[in-house]
Each structure stands twice: as C-alpha cells, then as structure tokens.
From TrEMBL:
Signal peptide: none annotated. Residues 532-555 have a biased composition (Basic and acidic residues). One of its GO terms (cellular component) is DNA replication factor A complex. SUPFAM superfamilies: Nucleic acid-binding proteins. Residues 1-60, 511-555 are annotated as: Disordered. InterPro entries: NA-bd_OB-fold. Residues 1-25 have a biased composition (Polar residues). GO terms for molecular function: damaged DNA binding; single-stranded telomeric DNA binding. This is Replication factor A C-terminal domain-containing protein.
C-alpha cells in the first residue's frame, strides 16, 4: 500500500475507485481511522481523510511488532508461508459452481491492522473445519499464498490466503492493535458503465432508493416477502446524488438480507449500499446485479450510509428531481405499431405493453415443454434418462419439470398476432403452474405412458375471450426475422399497475434457443403498416433506454 498523505485510496493496481474505511474503530492516539466522503461532493470524487499507518517499501517483510513470525497482508507472496497473520474477518460466503451448484469452497474478505484487504479461501473438503464469525479477529498460522482469480475479484491484492493442511486458526480476544471493521470501494455511474459486462473486479454501490419492485418509496411502502422469497429476487431503482437512475437487481441472499433490513427499521429506509455488484446491460440499459459475496446496508448501518443520509437530508430537491412516474412509464402500443417497430432498421431489444384479447389457444404444437430442473433449458430423451440441451449445463442427473410454452392467438383493434407465453407468465394467466396441470392430468388418466402428450387443458381454454395487458419482449429472434411470434414476460389485469421488476430478462425461464425458435412457425401479420406508427414506438423505446443518461446531463 502506498502512502499518499491523508487519502485512503489504495490498491496494488492503479484504478479510479474510491476506497473508504469504516470509522467505527479508533486508533491508539484517539483519532478515527477513516470516514466515507462520498456524500461530501455530488461527483463522488472527494478525498477521504485517514491515519491508517502505511508500510514503506523499505520495511522488512515481517512485522517487528509481533515478533519474527508475523506478517502483514502487503507482504504476502505466492507460495507456502509458516508465519502468522492477524486480521479481522469482514465477511465469508459459499463459492458454488453456477451450473451444478456444487460447493467449490468458502471465500472470505479479510482486513489486517494496516487496513489492507485480501481475499481468503477454504477448499470444499475443509469447509466446516474452522468456526468463522463475521467481525471477529483471528490469528492464522501457516497458509499458502495462491494467485488471485482474474474474474469477479473482491480485493485488489494479487494473492489469496488459502488455508492449507497445517493451517491453524484461533480467535484473538482483546487484540491490542485495533483493526478496521470494514472497507468499501465505490464506483460512480461512469465507472460502472466503463466496466459493464467485462467480468472484472467487483465494486460497491451507495445511493438512495427511488422504487422497490415498482413501488415508490413512501412512509407506507410494504414488501411482498412471500413473493420475494419465492422468486429470490427483487429490483430496486437507485440513484447516486443527481446522477442517472439505475436498476439494482438483488438475488438470493442479498434479496433476503434486503427484506430483513428494510422491515427491521420500523420505517421506510432511503439509503442503500450494496457491496461487490456486477455491472451488466439488461434490455439495452446499464444495471447492477448482486453476487454471492454481496452484502446490504441501509440508512445508519455503516459510516458511508450515514454520510449519504446526511447529504440526502439536506439535498431533497436534487434527490427528487426524477420522479417515479417518469422512471416507470412504458409506452402502450398496438399490435400494428409493435410489428411496425420490429421492421425498423434501428430497432433493438425492448419491452412494451400491449392490451389484447385472447382469440384462441394454438393447438398445432404442445402447450408445454419438459425443462431441465437446474437451468430451465429444453431437454431431450436419452437412452435411459433426460439430457439437458444446454451445453453450458453440466448437470448429470436431469429432473424434468413441465414449463409453459403456450402459443395464443390474440387481437386488438389494429391487428392479429401470436404470443408465446413462457414460464411464470403462464401461471399468471391460468393461476396454476404447468407442472401442476400436467401432474393432475396424469392422476386423472391412469395408465397413460410417459410419452403421452397432454392436450390443451380446460384451464387454458377458459382464458379465450379474456382481455389482458401483456408485457411483451421484442427479442433478437424477432429482429432477425427468425420468428414473428412475440414472447410474453408478464401478464397483468387491465387495471393493475405496471411492475418494473418483472420486465427484465431474469423473470422468464432461461430457455435454450431451440425452444424459442420453436415458436416461430405461425403466420405473421400483414405488412401494410404506416411508418409513422413504428417511428413513434421506436422513439419511445430509445427515450426510455436513454432517460437516465439524458437526465444526468440536463440536471
């Protein structure tokens, strides 16, 4: 770590991130270690005072303060080490294979007396051997300095502390030298944008919440805990100072932690800090997604959220510039306008709202498919079992799960079309999961073989003649002419408000391309459309996707 006066900005790499240390721990001379200053200046570029001691390059590798057998993180190199490390365990989490969910090991975020952060790792075979408690101070004897992973790093250090066969971990009670409780590395909107989809280092986000699952932040905002627990996901619209609004997707443990903290406050919190988020483009716009390593903090949990809350309280006029109505608005389109938009050369993937009436259930193909229980992709029959058709899925024993792949003929005052209803959208139409309908059919018709295809059931036929608001996705398959059938991502009753969180890619099953191609066999609509209609839809889509960027420039 290089000494740079009072700045806590530090790394083994030279980047533009802002690094902030928790101010909860006091140094022996009575001064606070460091405080977040992201709330001090709207551009988030403020320096942060710190009196964290820095080791000079001329220092010896071993700390004389602890004897000849102790080492600081900055001196950790590759290879085995028979020395002691003294650190605080900030956080730990499971590392699993994203496809098979097999446990790879346990990852950790550690910080030492100098304020240097490093990643730790325990292999799957040794998970459970050590009693770990976040926030505790430990002494580790004997370890291996392994090379840090290239993707999704949570610390700048080039090495990772890997526990080896002879590693010995003990809790340090009443450690005489204070150790910081946490450390954050914040990125601005521009920095997230520059690193979007690059799968590199993970940084932290802090800002204020505008919407939670489509709901405006008010004193009476309530979360649907059951729905969030079932989907293991929620979407928060966030903004830092007067910058662009972004969607922050929280998954699994991060979604659960958000709910717990949101409810525990007893009032509606406004400030949100999420660590180690991954910037991605979803639907053509920049969004942030939580990772397994992500943690969630609100209003008064840590110093950076306290500082931001203080700024927010004195800058409510700036915080309220972009209203929830502007963020959530989606242009309703007719079927004629929708297909005209698809014909435009400048068209791109986008979501729209169409109010149509169901005319019929297309019965020329099956209304469901058997998906892989692990990744929702289509399956094929092997000699003895089902095989997942997704090459990236390495699940050996595939459990088949019926999923909706129902084509419906719809119409409005302008045109006719065929919609493809996938996954949860089908449940919104019939009130039942496809697997439930299929199971009930076989229970009522004993003796039918497994190869028997279930005909279109009454639950689907009963929807004919009903009018709904369909949230539809214009996909790459539509734009390239592979199919004119439109994918439905959500179905709403006509009077229901639009829920932004369900418009994204993650709300429908991640079906393989061959499933989507299979919905393109229906005849498309006529081609005699007015160009003006398509232009209006195109402009609407472009304005929605660039709203945040334009707002940041216009103030």
């Amino acid at each position: 770590m290089e000494s740079k006066g009072n700045s806590t900005v530090s790394s083994d790499q030279k980047t533009n991130e802002k690094t902030f240390a928790s101010s909860a721990t006091m140094k022996p001379h009575g001064k606070s270690t460091a405080a977040s200053a992201i709330a001090a200046k709207p551009n988030g570029k403020s320096d942060v005072p710190s009196d964290i001691p820095k080791k000079q390059k001329s220092d010896v590798a071993l700390s004389s303060a602890h004897g000849d057998r102790s080492m600081f993180f900055i001196d950790v190199s590759f290879g085995p080490h028979e020395v002691e490390l003294r650190f605080r365990l900030i956080h730990f989490w499971e590392a699993r294979n994203p496809n098979t969910k097999e446990l790879i090991g346990q990852e950790m975020l550690l910080i030492d007396e100098e304020g240097t952060v490093i990643q730790g790792f325990i292999t799957a075979g040794r998970v459970g051997m050590y009693k770990l408690t976040s926030g505790s101070v430990y002494k580790l004897s004997n370890f291996f300095g392994s090379r840090s992973k290239v993707q999704f790093r949570v610390a700048d250090h080039r090495a990772t502390i890997s526990f080896s066969w002879n590693s010995d971990l003990k809790v340090l009670e009443n450690h005489p030298v204070p150790i910081l409780e946490d450390r954050f590395k914040f990125h601005s909107y521009e920095e997230f944008q520059a690193n979007c989809d690059r799968i590199v280092d993970l940084y932290d986000y802090v800002g204020h919440m505008k919407l939670v699952n489509g709901q405006t932040i008010t004193d009476h905002t309530a979360l649907d805990e059951v729905d969030i627990a079932e989907k293991r996901h929620l979407c928060v619209h966030v903004q830092t100072h007067d910058g662009p609004v972004m969607k922050l997707h929280l998954w699994d443990n991060a979604a659960s932690e958000f709910c717990q903290k949101f409810i525990s406050y007893g009032r509606t919190p406004t400030v949100l800090l999420v660590t180690t988020v991954n910037p991605k483009y979803l639907g053509g716009t920049l969004a942030l997604a939580s990772m397994a390593s992500s943690r969630v903090f609100m209003d008064t949990d840590v110093q950076p959220t306290k500082d931001y809350l203080a700024w927010l309280s004195s800058n409510l006029d700036i915080a309220n510039k972009i209203t929830a109505e502007v963020v959530t608005k989606r242009e309703p389109v007719t079927l004629e306008e929708l297909y005209s938009y698809i014909k435009q050369e400048t068209a791109k993937v986008a979501w729209f709202e169409c109010t149509t009436t169901i005319d019929d259930i297309v019965q020329s193909s099956s209304w469901y498919y058997i998906s892989c229980g692990g990744c929702n992709s289509n399956t094929i029959k092997g000699s003895t079992s089902l095989i997942c058709n997704n090459k990236k899925c390495v699940k050996r024993e595939v459990t088949g799960v019926p999923q909706y792949l129902t084509k419906i003929a719809v119409y409005d005052k302008s045109e006719q079309a065929v919609f493809a209803i996938l996954g949860d959208a089908g449940k919104e139409l019939t009130g039942k999961h496809a697997s439930e309908l299929v199971a009930k059919y076989f229970e009522s018709n004993e003796g039918l073989g497994a190869k028997h295809l279930v005909p279109v059931l009454q639950a689907l036929l009963d929807t004919i003649g009903h009018t709904h608001k369909f949230i539809v996705k214009v996909s790459d398959h539509n734009l390239t002419g592979k199919t004119q059938t439109i994918t439905v991502t959500k179905i709403l009753p006509p009077e229901a408000p639009l829920a932004i969180a369900h418009l994204e890619e993650g709300t429908t099953p991640a079906v393989s391309d061959d499933v989507l191609k299979g919905v393109g066999d229906e005849p498309g609509p006529s081609t005699s459309f007015e160009h003006s209609a398509g232009d209006r839809v195109r402009k609407s889509s472009e304005s929605l996707e660039s709203l945040e960027a334009k707002r940041s420039k216009s103030g």
